[in-house]
Amino acid sequence: MTTHDELVTQRDEATRLQEYYKTELERQRAMNAELRKAVADMARTFQETLAEAVTAADSGDLVEVRRIAYANRSAWQAYLQHIVTAAKASSNKPE
User: Model's pTM, two decimal places?
Assistant: First the structure.
């Protein structure tokens, strides 16, 4: 037979777990939103720079095409770093 104290302890543990899971769900949702935003920003930047590069190539401005390509590479590296950082943060559990 389960004692009153054991029931109280089990209820308290269940409440703590429920709060933990609720907090964890909120944290995961925030991380997912941040990752989605980073990916959307990266895609938007890619579309914009691709259009700029096509325009520059159509006009024969290879120097501008190179400049856009180098700027795009830097932007991609920054976005990827943002995504990696967010992914690492989402895999770390709060203490």
Answer: 0.60
